[in-house]
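Handoff note, outgoing to incoming analyst
You'll be picking up this chain. Sequence as last confirmed:
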Amino acid sequence: MLDRHKMALLGAIVAVGAWLLSAAIASAYTPDVSFAKLLVGGEPAHGVIIRLLTVALLVALGLLGHMVCQALQRPRGSQKALEALMEASPTGMMLVSPQCMVLHTNSAMAQMLGINTAEIVKRRCDELMSEDMCSRDHHCTVERVVNGEVVLLEEANVSHSSGRQIPCLLSATPVPGFDGSPEAVLQSFHDISESQRMQEALAESEYRYRSLVESAPISIVIIQDGVVRYANSQAAETSGYSHKQLVGSDIAQHLAPDLKEDVLQLHQQRMARAAAGEKVQPQMLSAAVIAAGGSRQEVEVASVVITHDDQPAELLAIRDTTAARRAEWALAAEKERLQVTLRGLSEGVITVDTDGRVILMNCAAEKLLGKPQSDVLNQPLADVLTLQDAQTSEPLPDSSQPWLRRGVVTNGSYMGVLVTRDGSERTVTATYAPVSAPDSQVIGAVVMLRDITAQQRQDQEQRRIETLEAIGLLAGGIAHDFNNLLTGFFGNMTLARLALNSGGDVEKRLAAAEQSLGRARELTERLLTFSSGGKPVRSRISLATLLEEAVVTALDGGSESCRLKLGEGLWPLKADEGQLRQAIVSLLRNAYEATAGNQQVTVVADNLSLDEDDPLPLSSGDYVRISVSNYGPTIPRDVLPRIFEPYFTTKSGGTGLGLPVAFSIVRRHDGHLEIESQEGHGTSVHMYLPVVKRTAEPQPQTPTASSPAIRGPLRILIMDDEELIRTALTALLEELGHEVMQAADGAAALAMYREAMDAGQSFSLVIMDLTVPGGMGGREAAGRLRRMDPAARIIVSSGYSTDPIMGAYSEYGFDGVIAKPYRLEDLQDALMMVMAGS
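Most recent structure output, in case you need it:
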């Protein structure tokens, strides 16, 4: 029997051996495996390590067990010594009889099974194994050992009391009796559960890494000694080579010729540094490779030095940047084209970012502002470009900022005066538009500056020329018409004088001369419609009646030459009946003359409501539209822009005043006149006149048969700066039996009126000229006279029949109106109207 010291030594040896075995197995499963080994493939390193260490250590353990058994055969051997040795082992052990009955077990085995040692002894060992192990005849391990087999490192599962299966490595050695035959079998069970879990986790990790590399969207290769040792699927696909062609090929054959030498030299330098033990940092570089078809590919390479087969190698991650490079080149080319275009533009172009700061300016803008681009980059646009109002010289607000802050896509333009660096002033138009990204987000703005100084000067000069031409045409026309009228007047006056001497018909010649003067008066009235500031004398009129009368007047009673279409319920108008009749008559005569009297003229009147979106240059509201149409020859396109010019005519017998007079009258009535002429559709002139609300308004009184006649002679004060007119008017009034006194201006008239009032001989009526150059006119005098005598009766008279006062005389303190020139009948009617109104 071994003494206590020897048994303790043997137990320690077994324990240390088992501990070393456990540590070796655990360390063998630790994932200390190179990345290159994962990529290249082959048997995992941990499998080799585990087998070598486990075989060595378990062989040692078997030898130790054999030594124990030999020791037990000695006379001093004892069953107790064996049990003590088993108990000292951290590995589960069972001593089994040749009949598979458990004779003894240690605490480690009991802990592995989850039961105490007493429950294990006297049971069959196969009851402690898993069912699948039993089905593979592992319960015959004892029989195999008894028969002389060596059982070493066999995988087996034992059943825990909870039902959980515990994987183990099983080794068995015979324990011989005194006769040398196996008396028992010593089984050892090493729990490898944790080692298996680590092995499975490592295998899964290896699979993930391998899958990641193989499915990566970039090319991954390993280069060693200038040869491709590994390439993933993407590398083969991108290069156009098969995987077999790529792996083992010389890297030099894949490099672009212009970069080959530099890239190979860099690779050799990095490998030499790694071989010398230096730490080589990862590196990024741009390169170019040649694909299988010979096409050049621009690439971006990330290089990391690794160990492959115990030698330095380079792991390369390669990204194909060909498309991106081409896009960059295209963008650069487009930018260059844009720069060329901008340099060639005569307009100044300034580009700003969302903060309104200048990021680009072309040559034209530099020249216009007098500043180079380098001086204004990143400066606020408001500091670089300041426009002034042409009228007030006040700075215009920077119009680009509000919508840049709002991020709203909009456009706009404004005009102003730009003061350049040298102090000169240029008139420019600034047009701005936002620059948007593909997602419609505003990323800046472009401001285009156009110098219109020369254009404005040309336009002004052209307008001056056109104005002078129009004035010349107008003056020539007026002179022509007045010369004709004066010829008739002087001729008839000469004939009247001759008839007076010879006893001829003087009355007839004077009537003819008066007729010429009447035509002259009509001409001046038509011309005065072009003067500024005049207002029509408005009253409520019946449009239907007015149109019917105008047709008869224009066509000399031949109403059958006109087709009149009146819409139902025509809205009422408030207009100057005489002016409106004149305008309609002019349109009718033009239309009739255009057909040479061979076709009907159509007149259509209807109601029309306009909204804000209507293209006509009129405010929204209700209007009456009068359309005069004919189907004669159309008006040439080059003539249309001039048809409203006074004295412009294409007819040999035309006056050139019809359409201009009509246009002026309609405009003074807040209306609109437009003309359209199309081949095959004839010519139509459309007159738009605003309507009035249907409310009753007082009508001006006119003398009628029932109006009371003037009783007795009147005391009348006349005020006019022209002595000729005062003399003639005095003679006319005295012819009517009235007493007349004269004043040359308003101040004199007021003094005479005050003197008459003080003497108790007030004037019955005052006739005042509206305009007195250098003196008090009728407007001021009437106001003072009204304050002096609220009951005074005042008639205003003027040659400016379109003066606002003539159109609304009652608003300025007058009781009546008479326009120069006037006849005796006109004067008598005015007197009767004013006196009847009193």
